[in-house]
Amino acid sequence: MTTITLIEGDGIGPEVAQATRCVVDALGAPIEWEVLEAGLPAIEAHGTPLPAHVLESIRRNKIALKGPVTTPVGTGFRSVNVTLRQELELFASVRPCRLFDGVPSRFDVVDLVVVRENTEDLYEGVEFEMGSKEATKLRGYLDYMHGFKIRRDAGISLKPISVTATNAIVHFAFDYAKRHRRRKVTLGHKANIMRFSDGLWLDTALEVEKGYRDAGFEAVQVDELAMVLAWHPEELDVIVLPNLYGDIISDLCAGLIGGLGFAPGMNLGNEHAVFEPTHGSAPDIAGRGIANPIAMILSAELMLDHLGLTAEATRLGRAVRAVLGSGKIRTADMKGEGEPSTTSEVADALVAAVEG
Ligand code: NAI
Asked: What does the buried/exposed string (b/e) look like for 175-197 if buried means 16 or more CB atoms within 10 Å of the residue's CB?
């Protein structure tokens, strides 16, 4: 038996997490759940969105399946997601986006994977508030040392990109492509504008690429990448990006396959892994029983595969394809006519499919 830390999250988190747990349990996989709270319920119970015992549980079990968690604005709490990624050194975020029969999309073929660097860039949290003592000092220093004039009424966020983190994520992307028989790795950057951050990212990647000459590779400016994705997404395969571009582009890719409700994800480090859907806690539909659980169920498929439970992962993937392909399920985010399927109807259909 493998023990998995299950964090249901908040908003629609508990709804999609419980649906996922039903479907995974129906597979009869040799796993047991250690269910713990993070996010808004943990603030109420423990005064913090990420209590130490939750982090300790993931460190012990090595694997977590996580529902979305609201990032409270203006409360002083750090984002649970950013903290988990930094504390557990989950340096790679992997978000496969594949089009399913039965899910409406503007495209016929989309089958790509966004690999996002998860630990640094503008999301590292090195920030200086407008008007603060620190921001004033930094502005003075930059002016004195380099003649950089930053406006007095500017807030400042720094964008560190290191050789170490770039090496790790680009190696990871090539290895992932090889393991999953992918044909090409596309690296997004803006090296022409940000020479010392994106420029270093590009130069480091070009060095790494020399070790993978049998793999397809291209480096593309991220704005051009966005255009190609909206125009000919079938031309792309594995896309590797720094943190901020990766966040934006992976939501764009979710849109290509019919929405966030179909986009799973995983955050991987050398020791730990956290599997979670790309979407957030969707407060606008929370508690209504209409959240689409497929993204979290597909995240569980990635988890089973990661655990080496290949037969269970395959059965789960097949069940999702069969249920969506049957056209009998239409979740709220798929739009269309008539009453949408409820979260539990989707779960019931999937349980029947994995048991059938
Ligand atoms: P969101 O992803 O929660 O919602 C965006 C839109 O998509 C909403 O209209 C929502 O109803 C819809 N949607 C999302 N997931 C859906 C699903 N499974 N089924 C049907 N419709 C779905 O993004 P938003 O509103 O920007 O963020 C809400 C909160 O979630 C914020 O506090 C944000 O920080 C947090 N968040 C957490 C993440 C995580 O825990 N990994 C990831 C992204 C956001």
From this structure: ebbeeeebeebbbbbbbeebeeb
Q: pTM of the full predicted structure?
A: 0.93
**Residue 6 C-alpha to ligand 1 middle, in angstroms?**
19
Ligand 1 centroid to Cα of residue 287, in Å, is: 14
Domains of the chain with CATH codes? 1-91+264-356 (3.40.718.10), 106-120+160-256 (3.40.50), 123-158 (no CATH)
Phi, psi of 187, rounded to the nearest 5 degrees: -105, 125
Q: Regarding beta strands 2-7 and 63-66, do their DSSP bridges make them parallel or antiparallel, or are they unpaired?
A: parallel
Tokens standing for residue 298: 């597909």
| Of 9-13, 131-135, 157-161, 211-215, minimum mean pLDDT range | 211-215
> Residue 225: what pLDDT?
98
Q: With 90 as the cut, is the pLDDT of residue 76 above it?
A: no
Q: Cα of 127 to ligand 1 centre, how many Å?
A: 25
Ligand 1: which of 260, 288, 292, 296 to mutate, judged by most atoms within 8 Å of the beta carbon? Answer: 260
* pLDDT higher than threshold 90 for residue 73: no
